[in-house]
Structures are given as C-alpha cells and as structure tokens.
# Entry
Amino acid sequence: MDFLGEYGVNSGQVINKAKSQVFISRNLSYRHHLIIDLLRIPEGTAPFTYLGVPIFRGKPMVSHFQYIVDKIQLRFSSWKGSLLSMAGRLQLINSIMASMVVYSFQIYEWPVNLLRRLEVWCRNFLWSGSMDKHGVPLMAWKTCCAPMDEGGLGLKQLVVLNRSLLLKNAWEIYSSTSEGCSFLRNRFWRNGALRRSYASSSIWSIIKRFWQQVIDNGCWLLGSNSQVAFWKDNVIGRLLNAYFGANVNIMKNTVSDFIHDGNWNLPPLLQLHFPDICEIISRVPIAFDSHDRLIWMPSTSGILTARDAYSFLRIHLPPLAWSKVIWSKFITPRMSMLAWKVLKG
# Structure
C-alpha cells in the first residue's frame, strides 16, 4: 500500500515484505482476502517466534519452548566439560541461564517438567562435565542453588527464577504508567477487581496468579491529588478491608476525597467507631510535590527488582561465616571450589 511506502521514505525504515507476515483476526474473516491483496504481505499463522520469544494462543506447552531447549542441548553438547574445572563449568551454566531462557521467563510460565529436565542437564554437567552422565553429586541441587553466603554456589532454581520474573512483570503491570501496562490493567482489571471473564490470553492467565502478591506487598506513597483508592489500595501498610471486611470494596472513594487543605479529613462516623485506625491513617504523609508511587515493602529501596523477586520467593538458609573467606576475589575460583567441597563435607 502507499502508506507503507511513504512510511519508508519518511522514516528510512523500509519494510521488507518478503520477511514480513500479517496476522488477521478471526473476526475479520470476511475481509481476509482484501487485506492480503492490499498489503501484498504473506499471511502468518501461530505459533511463531518474535524477538526470540514464542507467540501462541492458549496455555504454554512443552512444544512451544522445544526450540529453546534444543539450542541449550546443542550448547551443552558442544562443550568439552571434562576438560574444564568445576569452577569453569559453573560459569558456563550461569551463562546459559542468563542468555537463553531469562527473556522468555519474564513472559511465560514454563512447564515444570521441562524446567526439571534442564536442571538435570545442568546438574550432570556440573558434576561430570557431560549433560548425559549422572556423575557423583556431592551436594543436593537445592544446596548448590543457594547463594554463596548461605553455603551454595549461587546457581538459580529454574522454577523459582521463572516465577520471580513473572512476579516482577506483574509488579510492573500493576504499578507502571506506561501505555502497555495501562492497556493490560484496563483490559483485565476493573474497579479494583480482576475480571472473571475475558478473552483468552497466554500471558495474563499466568500474571494474575501473582496479582494478589503484588497487592499484599505493595504500599502507596501518596502524592498531590491522589487517585489511589482509599478502601481498596494499601496506604497504611495493610489493606483497609482487613479491618472493615470485603463490603468496603464496593466503595469508590479516592484518597483525595478525604484530604482538605493538605490535611486528612476523615468522616466523623469513622473517627467515632474506629479511632485507632483513623489515628494510623492520619499519620500517613502526603507529598504534594510529587505523584502517587507504589513501593515494594519487603525491599529496602521500595523497588521490586529481579533479584528482590527471586529473594522473596526462594527458601532462605542461615548465612555461613566462612563463605566470604573462600569466595574472596584474591583466591582463584578453582581453589575456592575445592575449599567449598571440603567445608561442605
């Protein structure tokens, strides 16, 4: 079409129709041939891959991620792990997880049996140098996946890593003001409640599982003309419906409805029957020189990072004093690994 050519001339981004595909909604079947003839771009079908991530309809299945698993298998097979020290094999495992699966982990929840298979390959490669040989594991895999200061090797449990990145994604959708996040909120979350019925989505069905965790662990810092829901959002470190029950969820007041001349102006009946709660609310500061901002309460910075999300979901072990000594930068990784195996027995 002419507008595609004009776009290329004005932007310098010429569209290669041979490498492009058009995806047409089933609701436009009556215009199917017209669209294809006008664009002169071949029609594509799902599933397909875009920027290294599979795009499909419905629940994530093993077949959707098989091509990524095949790449990982090929990478493991091409390495001569038996010629490397255990410290070298540890670095290679970390590089695979960081470069080949983390991106899709932020979007989809992988099937657990597929993640277990990847962990078996990582464990075998770590202890034997080959993904196909079991070797003699001296430590449980969960111990190896603990942080170094807790006696582990700093590896990641893939199931926990996958869920932690999805939790972070849910946090961004809930708190971000970007157009994409606003679109998802408006589509799936209405009037402070998740919609019960919606068009099928391979992404939202997973994100909604972490939605309540975001609400329970997030707290709003109030700004000028605050549009935070007074009854439904967390403004005092705990949702108000925990005190008043679920009946308050039908109320649509915002925080700004209870602010007058820069001070809290709570209803007299609320102050009469719940003076303790009103006292807590009145202590909440309001920053009139900024906008509303959601903070993640378990984090000291108030921002939920991928590291914070993983730490939030994983099992914590007591720290070990000797870990900082053996993993010092002044000791070669090979000697640090040897000391770790000796101290772990």
The radius of gyration is 26 Å. The mean pLDDT is 83.
